[in-house]
Amino acid sequence: MTYQRRLLRATALAICLTSAPAWAQEVAPATTESDIIVTGVADRQLLLDAETETGSRLGLTVRETPAIVDILSQELMQERGLRTTVEALNATPGASSGELASSPGQLSMRGFTAGAISLLYDGVRQTNSALIIRNMDSWSFERIEVLKGPAGVLYGEGSLAGAVNLVPKKPRFSGDAFAATAGYGSFGTARAGADANLALSDAVAVRGVASINRTDGFVDDTDARFLAATLGVSFRPVERLSIELAADYLEDKYGTAYWGAPLVAASAARDPSGLVQSADGFVIDQATRRTNYNVTNADQGADAWWLRSRIDYELTDWLTLMNQLSYYDANRRFRNSEVYTYTAPNAAFPNGSLRRSTTWIDHDHQFFVERAVFAADFGIGGHRNRLSVGAEYSDSKFDSVRRFGNTTAVDLFDPQRGTLSLEDSAANFPGAGNRANFDSRTEIRSIFAENAFNLTPSFLLVGGIRYDDIRLDRVVADLNAGTVTPFTRTYKAVSWRAGAVYDLAPKAQLFAQYTRAVAPVGSLALISATNARFNLTKGKSVEGGLKASLWNDRVDLTLAAYWLKQDDIITRDPANTNLSVQGGSQSSRGIELSTSTAVTEQFRFDASLAVLNAKFDTLLEAGGVNRAGNTPPVVPERVASLFAIYRPAALPITLTAGARHMGHFYTDNANSIRVRAATIIDASIGYRLPFGEVTLRGRNLTDRLYANWFGGSARQLTLAAPRSVDLSFTARF
Prior knowledge:
Subcellular location: Cell outer membrane
CATH superfamily: TonB-dependent receptor, beta-barrel domain
Family: Belongs to the TonB-dependent receptor family.
GO cellular component, one term: cell outer membrane
CATH architecture: Beta Barrel
Number of helices: 7
Main location: membrane
CATH topology: Maltoporin, Chain A
Shape: globular
Radius of gyration: 25 Å
Mean pLDDT: 91
Membrane topology: Multi-pass membrane protein
């Protein structure tokens, strides 16, 4: 589909949205101008009292929700120097995120990764989250909310471990405001952003947000650029009605994408590191830390349009109707050499060499989501009751060109990277399955309900249920084998939760909940005919904890303990290990602690700690190899952080320092490759001006060699950037 056609479709749909059915909630109270556009240090606020739709559609606050919801506001992201969604997710208590080139922003949380965590955009679940997620500029968002634990009752299949909600900036009625940011730093990294809010009248407000980023990359020839733009319009034609319309455009383009550093024999390494411990003694060579092995004509990128509408209508003093309509249209392309396998020295390559794969993948992806919800707040026998009932329909179309082959080997230290042949032929991509086209369509029809009942003023019962009817239609054309294989699969699933919140004191709550959720055995967009025959996996979780505001509201504290299990994952038949069957399971249990403490008006520190034990309970692999007791890949079992900010009363400066610890993790089910733990230290000094702030920030100050994810295979690691500095200026007008 051409850019022009997609633009015309996007424009046409935006016009149609203005005539969509009306719905909604009471107009939010007016905010101050500082709420509109924020720059610099966050004002002290009780995030536990913030209302969030990520954890419930009942209008509950974080304090009233029987689960952990972490909120990173725009203020917090600015004061910590979190420029991207990956950096923001890594600042979330108990979470870790990486920059895997195919899906930057993959998340590990509560012992699970990838398909077990849903991505939401303005509260709407994105079909096939692992395909859609990108490393976006945080400037675009008012806040990022992370719901921990199964979220299937809210967002359907694939939400076993939680959900991430990216909440974009929206128009405000409180007045005109403008902000801008610009920065430059190591590795040719540059960033610029603008944010303008115009309150045209008491009934109409407009907001435009844009950002552009570019970098040379710390690895040779890995330049990249990113563009994001949002235009939103809000209407309040009458007191009880509000209408929001928005369009978003996102683009990323990589020169030659970085797919990780390969493990090599210790005897071949010029500067072997202790980053990994492997069963075969292979290491990461620091001498190749900045070496690129991708082909020179690699091409990777994505561009996407989002069109969104939300219409809230307060039908009565106690009944609200809300409708959300979203449309997404994206193209993605991956033309790379992605997997590098070490080969011992020989006459042609006396230093050792790397065998390399080639990949040519295109995505043409569209989906449409319509959700309508009735929300009521009324009394039953003198007890407050909040109820929401709704329905959702989503239709996703995903077409993919998929080519896999091999290219020339390269020297480990002096790679002549060569080019990828762009001829689509069996000679370049030989073998069955290596030259195929996928055409997929996924339709999901859902109904759901939630209820929060105050048994007493201090005892709240919360429950919810969701039913999903899923239909998958797929056609796989194998061009090399000359076959066309169509198949259809339907799934029916029920997710539910039951929880309670008890007030020990007005600002101290105990909570507990039990949840059930489901997930497919793989991405619905890419699932094979063989795996499509399997049923949805089942998840369950028990969680309890404490939320409290202490010391005259100067301390916010959350504490949670949980157990989470997924059953019916694919394993091998114990009686015949050549057969794949359902019956495997994995689980995790852990404790999470998070606190934000304002020691004085000038000094605040935030701290978090997550300790967990994740394992495969039952898993047989090829040959009957038993993986029970092993830790799932890319699951650090210790994650901790500490951040402090100080603004001396007598000086116009801001000082910050932060440390983040990520425990060791494995890259494969066999736990044969162990990546060591790392502690990363950042710091900054800012000078406050009447209209903004200039900040000098150092990142990874100890120049720690560490990895945040695996690369093109389990035997490659995505290394994080070395020590860097950047200078930024953020202003408000």
